[in-house]
Design brief:
heterodimer, A: 272 residues, alpha/beta, Rossmann fold, 6-stranded mixed β-sheet, 4-stranded antiparallel β-sheet, 11 helices, B: 262 residues, mainly alpha, 2 domains
């Protein structure tokens, strides 16, 4: 469980990125944090593994205050996948790249070898085991970065903009994968601008604007709340936009799911 | 990194910021020369204090103090080395003169840092490039110089992100003995170097697509012009130089220790 209690954060250059954020993330939750650029989304999740320590307020991860705990210790439970995989890849082979964190966390050789095989298999990277990560495509590099985090099996996985620069197919694979992780009991936190991606996942959505949380709730409530979305510079998913414009025909306005939309429309058209 | 913070330009409009960078450089050079020719505490102290109105006028006090704080460590080393050697040299005795001499050496360093810091804090990299260009330095060199300066903060930010990413993967930079600590930086340096190379290739392509080097003789949007305030600064600089040299050769500089009868 991650508890964020009235957290303020000011960067050394004087920018106040978080202005009193309170939030509780229970084990096994799936959360999407959304909001315009500079809303403080990345700053917030960097508090979860202690990369940033609050200027005021507290962050507790499983009851442990992040203030007096090292990143290395917190990272064991909270895996953080950075936006740009190039910020972390440095090894000669994909295998070593995935093993890097495992060695840092002090896993035994037999254990980390098993874990590496498992993680590579999980993300379909087995054939690249001995390839240099720099030879891979952007999407594959992103998967290597993800594998290198999942390998140590953290309880919480925080991802910063996982869908950026991915084609539709990759995004779909990623979505299935995230949902699978979540069903296996992992807490998943995703920071993203991709409203369609979030609509398809339908997680708990947190909207941020100017360092504050402006909305927090289930996906089909938050993503259809036009006023709040406007405040966070986000447009509703396309399905919702259609349904809002058809509201005069007595259609519900809180639809974000394509299948649900299809059912409603079929019923309306008298086909069911 | 705090030493470099003191050299980082921030856009402020002040009478010092709009001065011609070439003239500001002349001023820094004259301060530099005067600081080098004196060994005594009093003139160095005067030089130090003389910069303060400039700092206040330019409204860069905060950054300036930060750069001084960054220099404090080296200043302390200079002071203690001087004290130690004077102490040993004078058969393990220490007089007020020795302390004054060590302070003067330290202050000389501080004056040098301080004047350079003022120059870089009040001169935008663009202006600096412009000044080089209009001093007939080949454009390629000016461009390389301004680009290098321009990318320092970008690289610093990137290094920070990479450090965060590797720390998130359990890397502990401060762990282990000296050799281990140096090795700890490999996971930071490799991504940083690779991204710098990538960035430079991208930059080269972006420049070519914007017709870099298409015309031999470039024109500039801004032309540096020497104005009244610049002439005043030239006058001040030359005056500092003349007075400094004159005092050095013709005037006896009293020492504090003698003055206080120590």
């Amino acid at each position: 469980m991650i508890e964020v209690e009235d957290v303020h954060f000011t960067y050394p250059i004087g920018v106040e990125a978080l202005k009193g954020v309170s939030l509780t993330i229970k084990d096994g939750e799936f959360i999407a944090i959304m909001g315009q650029n500079g809303a403080g989304k990345t700053t917030l999740i960097k508090h979860f593994n202690g990369l940033l320590k609050p200027t005021k307020g507290e962050v507790l991860v499983d009851g442990v205050n992040t203030k007096n705990t090292s990143v290395a210790k917190l990272a064991r439970n909270v895996g953080f996948v950075f936006q740009n995989p190039d910020n972390q890849l440095f090894c000669e082979t994909v295998e070593e790249e995935v093993a890097f964190a495992l060695k840092n966390f002090g896993f035994k050789e037999t254990t980390w070898k098993k874990r590496v095989t498992w993680a590579l298999n999980l993300l379909g990277l087995t054939e690249y085991r001995k390839t240099s990560p720099f030879m891979l495509s952007g999407g594959e590099r992103k998967r290597v970065a993800l594998a290198s985090v999942l390998a140590w099996n953290p309880k919480v996985v925080a991802m910063d903009e996982p869908t950026i620069g991915q084609d539709y197919q990759q995004k779909e694979i990623l979505r299935q994968f995230i949902i699978q992780l979540n069903t296996q009991g992992k807490t998943v936190v995703v920071v993203t601008h991709d409203v369609e991606f979030v609509a398809e996942c339908n997680p708990r959505v947190i909207l941020m604007s100017e360092g504050k949380i402006v909305a927090d709730g289930v996906g089909n409530k938050v993503l259809t709340d036009v006023d709040r979305l406007t405040q966070a510079s986000i447009v509703p998913p396309q399905i919702t936009q259609i349904f809002m414009r058809l509201a005069d025909f007595g259609l519900p306005v809180d639809v974000i799911d394509i299948y649900e939309a299809r059912e409603i429309l079929l019923k309306r058209l008298g086909k069911k | 990194m705090s030493v470099f913070d003191g050299l980082r330009f921030r856009r402020v409009s002040s009478p010092i910021h709009v001065l011609d960078p070439r003239i500001k450089f002349l001023y820094v050079c004259s301060i530099f020369v005067v600081a080098i020719i004196f060994w005594e505490l009093l003139p160095l102290l005067i030089l130090f204090l003389m910069q303060i109105p400039f700092v206040l006028l330019a409204r860069v006090q905060k950054e300036w103090v930060r750069s001084l704080r960054g220099a404090a460590f080296l200043a302390a080393i200079i002071f203690s080395t001087n004290i130690i050697f004077r102490f040993i040299y004078a058969n393990y005795t220490l007089t007020a003169h020795d302390i004054e001499y060590a302070s003067a050496m330290m202050l000389r360093f501080v004056v040098l840092v301080e004047s350079f810091s003022i120059f870089f804090l009040t001169t935008s990299p663009d202006h600096l490039g412009l000044a080089l260009e209009q001093s007939h330095v080949p454009y390629e060199f000016c461009f390389a110089f301004t680009t290098a300066v321009r990318f320092v903060p970008v690289l610093a930010d990137e290094a920070q992100t990479i450090m965060d990413a590797q720390k998130s993967r359990g890397l502990e930079l401060e762990k282990g003995n000296f050799l281990k600590r140096v090795r700890n930086y490999i996971p930071i340096l490799i991504p940083l170097i690779i991204s710098a190379i990538r960035r430079s290739l991208e930059l080269a392509e972006a420049m070519e697509s914007r017709a870099w080097g298409a015309i031999e003789k470039r024109t500039n949007l801004y032309i540096l012009k020497i104005r009244k305030a610049d002439y005043l600064l030239i006058l001040i600089s030359i005056l500092i130089l003349i007075v400094g040299v004159y005092i050095k050769f013709y005037v006896f500089v009293p020492s504090f220790s003698d003055f206080l009868g120590l």
